[in-house]
Amino acid sequence: DVQLQASGGGLVQTGGSLRLSCATSGFTFDDYVIGWFRQAPGKGREGVSCLDSSDSSTFYADSVKGRFTISKDNAKNTVYLQMDSLKPEDTAVYSCAAARFLVWPLRAADFGYWGQGTLVTVSS
Q: Does residue 6 contact residue 115 with C-beta atoms inside 8 Å?
């Protein structure tokens, strides 16, 4: 079974940092694009960042560029999202997902496999 498990959310003050993890299993890691999405209360889903495991290329939404860093650990089949200089507007449920092909900007419909969300709350 394909599985994605997101973790690492929590409560942090403005300017703080968190690292989210997306542990994957059940598929060939290098064949997939792993994306991070977020959904804030009352708002639509936003594609935040993605990593193409085949060539390690990365993409970021303008809203997080320069503050968030996506990376992977091939040995653990895990993708990380390091979030620095967090702002209250980063508060959202963050989810990771897997897709066979990369289309930027990210479209949730392209991602066939999803993990459960992890809540990030940034206090002002």
A: yes
Cα separation, 49 vs 53, in Å, equals 13
- Residue 103: is its pLDDT beyond 90? no
> Exposure pattern of 49-80 as b/e (b: 16+ CB <10 Å)?
bbbbbeeeeebbbeebeeebebebeeeebbbb
Show the tokens assigned to 82: 């390091």
Closest to 103 in 3D by CA, of 50, 65, 53: 50
Q: Write the single-letter amino acid at 101.
A: F
Q: How confident is the model at residue 35 (pLDDT cuts 50, 70, 90)?
A: very high
